[in-house]
């Protein structure tokens, strides 16, 4: 049995930047265990598996896996899979499609060369003091942007949002993997545990996402799900309307740009993230 697959760079302004993604078609007969093995073998931050296609309505069901586990929601896999569907699979290059993921339907649309997703309503979980971070990082008390809290937020996958005061602090960040992981296990309310550090500087955002997978400290090049959480956080604490670019991956030589367009009206969060994708390769995978 062979599966056609595509490799895409997501949230990338040019090739060999952004976050890599493998998109597998015709995966409806695979078990979750088989998908997990394939995702581990290719070893990108995430891989997606298209399990069902509805050509008449431009809809698809997908499953998302990191090398370690399945994700209920993840931004760069959804954006990249949508690019493949819009440009390579669905007829007539539709301007809007719908993806079904474990948290529900995700509306997708494109404007010129940007593909946008609309995120689910956020949940704001526990807020933390900075003392815990001092125990597992090189951060000092005055390195945090204290006007906003440190808080866990989820729109399907949860991230602890950590505001820092400037890019010098962000660039110099060092974490103790074991102590960090102990803190995450003790404090996070969901099984998806990760930190999203950011700086708002000169009207743009610079960010870093770090987590522990397979007992290794991992930094992600571009994290769409974290970006939806950050956008919700900024809509709540910074401004009821946001239109900017989140730059991630600069410190691991995979520069990424995640476009933000959001608004908060009463209690409704309209959270949109967008990005460009670059086609890299296609092939067949022997199962």
TrEMBL record:
InterPro entries cross-referenced by the UniProt entry: Phenazine_PhzF-like
Signal sequence region: none
Similarity-based family: Belongs to the PhzF family.
This protein's name: PhzF family phenazine biosynthesis protein
Domain of life of the organism encoding this protein: Bacteria
Coiled-coil annotated spans: none
